[in-house]
Structure formats: C-alpha cells, structure tokens
Design a protein that fits this description.
Layout lengths: L3 E5 L6 E5 L5 E4 L2 H7 L4 E7 L4 E3 L3 E6 L5 E6 L6 E5 L6 E5 L11 E5 L15 E2 L7 H7 L3
Length: 147
C-alpha cells in the first residue's frame, strides 16, 4: 500500500496517518499479545512515532513484555483500542497494531514470534520467518523483515 495511510481507535477519538508504503508486518503469539488482542495473536508493523500524524491523545500504561523487556502500551481509554507499543515513553520506535489501520485486509505477516506459544489450530505459512521465542535482537529482526 502506497500514499497516505490512516487508522485509529474503534470510536474514532484517536486517529493517525502516515505516508506508505507499509513496512513488512509480523505476528506475535506470546501470551501477552494474545491477551491484549483478545485473539490468537497480535499483528504489528514497525514504524517511528515521528512518521505518524496523530489527532487525540492516547492513554499509556507500562507493562513487562513476555520477553522481560519494559513496554509502553498506547490505547484509547473510552473504547479500549490498543494502538501501538514502544520501549520508550514518549514513544520513539513503535509497533503499530495492524488491526487499527482503516484498510488492512491485504497485509499478511512475513514473520512470527513466540511460535512456541501459538494457539492450537492456527496454521502458519511455512515460507515465513518463524521463531520459537524471539531473536536475540528483535529490533534488528523487525527492521530486516521482508529483505
């Protein structure tokens, strides 16, 4: 997808836009991602926060990721939509939640993390990059997806 891409929370109180193309997406199957998405996995794309134009001010709370790293979770409190995560507050490098894009139907993950925690019955494309946990340097891995 090229051009200006947009998305936001379910109720529309927080909106964002950025210029495409969309970076390669990945799916995480860890317990925390399953819980935050209320589904079998969470799908994200790596971006810099500065690439976004944001209207509205999301809430933020700090958690410890499944990997043990600190993570700041940005969401809109009224509708509860998780928008992006960052290792910093204020955010710098973020992982934008693919499901918050207005048009995400054509986005498929090219990599998978924490496959050891994958929900039963979910089949993964064998041509994708898969890790039982996560690479030692997940930031480098994210930035090299699809290359």
């Amino acid at each position: 997808m090229e051009g200006v891409l947009a998305g936001g929370c379910q109720c529309g109180a927080v909106r964002y836009a950025f210029n495409g193309p969309i970076p390669p997406a990945y799916a995480c199957h860890c317990g925390e991602c399953k819980k935050q998405s209320a589904s079998a996995f969470s799908m994200s794309i790596p971006l810099t926060y500065d690439a976004l134009t944001v209207t509205g001010t999301p809430n933020v709370f700090e958690t410890t990721a499944f990997s043990g790293n600190r993570k700041y979770n940005y969401f809109w409190g009224d509708c509860g939509t998780r928008l992006w995560h960052s290792r910093t507050n204020p955010p710098t490098a973020i992982t934008l939640k693919v499901g918050t894009l207005d048009h995400s139907v054509d986005i498929a993950p090219v990599g998978h993390l924490w496959v050891s925690k994958k929900q039963a019955g979910i089949m993964l494309d064998p041509d994708t990059d898969q890790h039982q946990t996560q690479p030692d340097d997940v930031l480098v891995w994210r930035n090299n997806l699809g290359q």
